[in-house]
Sequence to fold (196 residues):
Amino acid sequence: MWIQGWGEVPGQLVVISGPSGSGKSTVIRRLLERSDVRAELSVSATSRVPRPGEVDGVDYFFRTADAFKRGCTDGEFLEWAEYNGNFYGTPARPVFEALADGRTVILEIETKGAMQVREQAPTALFVFIDVPNFGELARRLRARGTETDLQIHQRLVIARKERDLAHCYDVRIINDNLDQAVAELANVLCTQTSGG
Ligand code: ADP
Ligand code: 5GP
Fold:
């Protein structure tokens, strides 16, 4: 199943990127709790090890690297990328089915994958969730406590490159005050989609 004419698809695709630790997951979770927003979050596949509390099929579809690569060969993914030594990809079928059904689908993905989606889906809406400054990003990653010091350092190196691509997105939201960032994203979705 592959979408030929994105312009004719009734649903709206929303791509959200931003440096690790900027608060994407937190903002999106709060957004989806709002009664005035009708959207669903795509569940990605990854070869990363689950964090404590993460549930297979809910947070991610956790795969071995070999199983992930088989999925790539089989054309299972709308986009995929390697991020800090692990693979991440968006299973295409559920996204296409939801869009064909007129629903709003959110992809929370890193920038390389987002650029792949941009080439395929010109009608998608691209949102970059950023932090007020780099020091705050480091502070949030450390406070989250889900990565080692080395992994945090590596994520901060990647974050610099990702922030350089913020200008490629339609909207940039600075997640300083959480309530305000959620409200801004809800406003963008309600303005841009019929699903809000
Ligand atoms: P991402 O999904 O972008 O990697 P998370 O949603 O996991 O980021 O957020 C990273 C950390 O920052 C979490 O501990 C989260 O609770 C915290 N956080 C999110 N938004 C804010 C905010 N506006 N102010 C302070 N801390 C925040
Ligand atoms: P994390 O390990 O923190 O869950 O995710 C690391 C990065 O991978 C984040 O920037 C996240 O948005 C991104 N990511 C999650 N799922 C996907 C996906 O399906 N495709 C791509 N390209 N990136 C993803």
User: Anything to note?
Assistant: The chain is about 40% helix and 20% strand. The two ends are 27 Å apart (CA to CA).
